[in-house]
Design a protein that fits this description.
Layout (H helix, E strand, L loop, with lengths): L5 H11 L6 H14 L3 H5 L3 H11 L21 H10 L6
Helix pairs in contact: 1-2
Length: 95
């Protein structure tokens, strides 16, 4: 769901005591990954644009911010405006 690899799951999942790869577990892993790169507070504050750069280093399909490409060209990525529209449509707040 979040492009979580087996190695990432092993690293974070073991530390967190997780034992499966269910959608709920993947959500927990994604939040922990965002926390580990120091952007979870920015996301909670609604400062999504500022969180994107560090998050794009973990998730190649994310843009680095508004009007920017991704961290790993030529990997396909979603444009910030499309990402943010989906984020808001699913209850996300911020700018």
């Amino acid at each position: 769901m979040y492009q979580i690899t087996v190695d990432t799951w092993r690293d974070h999942g073991r530390k967190m005591g997780l034992s499966d790869f269910s959608p709920k577990t993947q959500d927990l892993l994604a939040v922990e990954m965002l926390r580990s790169i120091g952007v979870i507070d920015k996301i909670k504050e609604g400062n999504i644009a500022e969180a994107m750069g560090p998050a794009a280093k973990k998730w190649a399909a994310l843009p680095k911010g508004p009007g920017l490409g991704n961290q790993y060209p030529p990997q396909p990525f979603v444009k910030y405006e499309a990402f943010f529209a989906i984020y808001q449509a699913n209850g996300g707040k911020g700018k």
